[in-house]
Amino acid sequence: MADTHTPVRWQSRRAFILAVTGAAVGLGNIWRFPYITGENGGSAFLLQYVAFIVLLGLPVMMAEIMIGRTGRAGPLAALTQLARDNGRSRQWSKLAVFGGLTLFLILSFYAVVSGWSLAYLGKSINGDFVGLAAADVGAQFNGFLQDLPLMLGCHLAFLLMTMLVVARGVSAGLEKLNNLLMPLLYLLLLLLAGFAATTPGFGEALHWLFWPNPEALSWQATLDAMGHAFFTLAVGACALMAYGAYMPEEQSLPRAAVAVAVLDVVVALLAGIAIFAVVFSHGMEPAGGPGLMFVTLPVAFAEVPGGSLWLSAFFVLLVLATWTSSINLAEPLVAMLVDKQWPRPLAAAVVGGCVWMLGVLAALSFSLLSDWHPLGFIAVFDGKTLFDLLTSIPPDLFLPLGGLFIAWFAARGLTTEQIETALGSAFMARLWRVVVMWVSIPMLLAVLLITLYRW
Ligand code: PHE
Question: Alpha-carbon Rg of the chain, whole angstroms?
């Protein structure tokens, strides 16, 4: 009996890890990680980011999955029911609403940048980068940002792709495709990092990424590293609770969380190595901003034999990875409306429509609306476009804030028995609680409060 069940169980454990990894791996790893590392002085950012993944991201990820696993439901229902059963305030359900708002804001810029990836897929198939020098690839990106029909068309196309899947209820077929193609993304990144090792800037890139450089430390780097640890793991907006609800009984939650975090960080590091090898080989600026990935990858692949084919393959895999992530961003929002008796297609259309409108405004931040600084009346946000604000405030402030409350609720709102059942052992439960109460929560509070104070 046990024997016949083993493969099935193993399959479903793997399926859980792959599904969460599919949600976690996306633009955060390949687009956002390199450019904010570049803006924050390399290792000064990267080493803090890894520390935050271990000390904050992982424990809060466990908290989030634990709440879903214990409540056996999506965010709103799980929080409402657990708060009621355990005699906590009903206000805790608002955490799911706050998470929804965060997901909405993130999705609005996520779809824009995913549209860029879609456009770059088309351009690479078209051979637009063949024979271009590094500087020309950069000029092409700047030109692309002004090409509104192409940029907005790709944005719309990507959003339609996402919302159609969500409108039909998340598709098993897509999940299978994701599980099949995800390993290919790793292989291609590995290949790229391998080729990077043959370029002249490789040593400098490694040094810059990994060798501690206390002079480059800044408060901004700390704040960005904390926010990005949450963003890359898709933690802090209650989006992972629904995954917990369907987690196989016998699966170890801590082990699954560690597996996801490792798989996620590896993608980011490989992408970072490949991208910064190009930056240092071609004397480019590490702090190249949100365009960094788009101006370096075509150059990186140009050095690989058969490069333009590989580049197209890479963008196919990237678009797929961002597709699964954006479905995971949209699904909790739509599910929340469906819970309120909205028909699913209508809910998807309304969410998609709102995300589209905000996204269009964000996309115009590089052309027509480049002088529009929506929060310019607050000193720290002066000079920031809508795109700048959306790519920084929700990931760097809202996700950690949500994470703080998620951690608190899991550690204080669940019973010891519930935590032990969710984490699989009394020892793990004790260890997790000590880390959350004495490390994660104080650290989160400290970074958030110091940030506010400095403003
Ligand atoms: N983790 C995803 C990425 O790295 C983004 C994401 C954030 C998805 C929050 C869901 C929730 O691309």
Answer: 21
User: What type of residue sits at position 176?
Assistant: K
283 C-alpha vs ligand 1 centroid, how far in Å? 31
User: What whole-number distance in Å separates Cα of residue 140 and Cα of residue 390?
Assistant: 24
The residue behind tokens 């939650």 is 253
DSSP state of 438: I
Closest Cα partner for 166 from 338, 24, 27? 338
28 ligand 1 Cβ < 6 A: yes
DSSP string, 196-231: HTTSTTHHHHHHHHHS--GGG--HHHHHHHHHHHHH
Q: Could you report the per-residue pLDDT of 357-413, keeping only the tens digit for each? A: 999 999 999 999 999 999 999 988 999 999 999 999 999 999 999 999 999 999 999
Across the chain, mean pLDDT equals 92
Sign for the CA dihedral angle at 242, 243, 244, 245 comes to: positive
Question: Do residues 181 and 320 lie in contact, with contact meaning Cβ atoms separated by under 8 Å?
Answer: yes
Picking from 64, 420, 25, the residue whose alpha carbon sits closest to that of residue 244 is 64
Establish whether residue 27 lines the binding site of ligand 1, counting it when its CB lies within 6 angstroms of any ligand atom. Answer: yes
Instruction: Please list, residue by residue across 110-126, b when 16 or more beta carbons sit within 10 angstroms of its beta carbon and e when fewer do.
Output: bbbbbbbbbbbbebbee
Pair 390, 105: CB distance under 8 Å: yes
CATH topology for 13-454? Answer: Amino acid/polyamine transporter I (1.20.1740)
Q: Which of 321, 282, 322, 320 is nearest to 298 (CA)?
A: 282
Confidence at residue 52, expressed as pLDDT on a 0 to 100 scale:
97
Which of 60, 105, 166, 232 has the most ligand 1 atoms within 8 A of CB, as the residue to mutate? Answer: 232
Ligand 1 proximity of 221 Cβ (cutoff 6 Å): no
pLDDT tens column, 173-223: 777 788 888 888 999 899 889 988 999 999 999 999 999 999 989 999 999
Distance CA 243, CA 16 (A): 8
pTM reported for the whole predicted model: 0.94
φ, ψ at 366 (rounded to 5°): -100, -5
The list of the chain residues with pLDDT below 70 reads 1-11
